[in-house]
Amino acid sequence: MRIEEIRPNPSNPRYIKDDKFKKLVDSIKAFPQMLELRPLVIDENNIVLGGNMRLRACIEAGLTDVPVTQVMNFTKEQKEEFIIKDNSSYGAWDWDVLANEWSDMPLEDWGLDLPTMDREEEPKTEKDNSKAAKECPNCGFNL
Predict the structure, then answer these.
(1) Domain ranges of the chain
(2) What CA–CA distance (Å, rounded) separates 104 from 21?
(3) Disulfide check for 67: which of 12, 39, 86, 135 has CB 3.0–4.6 Å away?
(4) How far is CA 102 from CA 20, 66, 72, in A?
(5) Could you give the 3-state DSSP secondary structure of residue 99?
């Protein structure tokens, strides 16, 4: 669909900070095929239900057409439920597997927040804590 036909959701409860937004834009530029596998989800009025940040990033990346899945006749409650469920994370990362099998991959460049920790505290994600130790004792990543 032409990107100018898609409308961002004015009540989107999610936001993205500048550094993460830049990474998202760079990711879309480097791997636009991923958008075909994870299209924006829009309603019958072309309002985004899933992918508001990706829409912003696609615009910033200069795309003129983007893949969409359009849902029709969702109730207001179904739209609201979709928005929350689409952005909920039910799983957790297995830091041992990531450290042992994925450590040579650019995980942070791909958007993964690697844990950081203070000397006297449990590991935290980057957004929880800006101070980092040299190595995470739980996963072995250099922080």
Answers:
(1) 3-87, 92-143
(2) 24
(3) 39
(4) 21, 30, 40
(5) helix
